[in-house]
UniProtKB/TrEMBL annotation:
Organism encoding this protein: Nocardia rhamnosiphila
Domain NADPH-dependent FMN reductase-like span(s) in chain numbering: 4-145
GO molecular function: oxidoreductase activity
Enzyme class of the recorded protein, top EC level: oxidoreductase
UniProt-recorded name of the protein: NAD(P)H-dependent oxidoreductase
Pfam families per record: FMN_red
Length: 189
């Protein structure tokens, strides 16, 4: 089996955010033959504007995102919930990945969404909005790989999510399901 590459996009720009820690923990669970890499630079991408989305002169940060996702086999989104929806930075990335319409870098890519918040809602609104946006953009939603974390500020306050045995088990299974969908092959944990 060739190396399966998954790109993880984190919806929080804060370096020590729980979203980032969950993405790091998920990346550490990649099965043999797979790699999950956190995409850096999502905050550098300008807001989507069709006036600047011109072949040959797309802003470098947006083109780098498109290139990274186009070269991947799948996408992992980790989203907190801001004011009842997904963060603008993550929605913006999806917008850039959706273009050109019908042929964007996200088109046909398997995508899993992990969500969490400090509330008992577990960022389900942000999750639903991310799933809707990705689906419209042409990504293939892998529902079996989705995870929701409630009160994650409390749950992971004492340590990194990779130190939480239950979270590691859940993330391992989630990543395995996504990698299987992305590779079209069975993988071993």
């Amino acid at each position: 089996m060739s190396q399966t590459r998954i790109v993880a996009l984190v919806g929080s720009l804060r370096e020590a955010s729980v979203s980032r820690q969950v993405a790091e923990a998920a990346a550490s669970t990649a099965p043999a033959g797979a790699e999950v890499s956190l995409y850096e630079g999502i905050g550098d991408i300008p807001f989507y504007n069709e006036d600047i989305d011109i072949a040959g002169s797309v802003p470098a940060a947006a083109q780098a995102l498109r290139d990274a996702v186009a070269a991947s086999d799948g996408l992992l989104l980790v989203t907190p919930e801001y004011n009842g929806t997904l963060p603008a930075v993550l929605k913006n990335a999806i917008d850039w990945l959706s273009r050109p319409y019908g042929a964007g870098a996200i088109s046909g890519k398997p995508v899993a969404v992990l969500s969490g918040s400090i509330s008992p809602n577990a960022a389900r609104w942000a999750h639903a909005d991310a799933v809707k946006s990705v689906g419209i953009a042409g990504g293939k939603i892998v529902e079996e790989a989705h995870l929701h974390y409630a009160a994650w500020g409390e749950r992971f306050a004492a340590g990194h999510p990779r130190e939480d045995a239950e979270a590691q088990r859940e993330l391992t299974e989630s990543v395995k399901v996504l990698v299987t969908a992305a590779s079209g092959e069975l993988v071993s944990a």
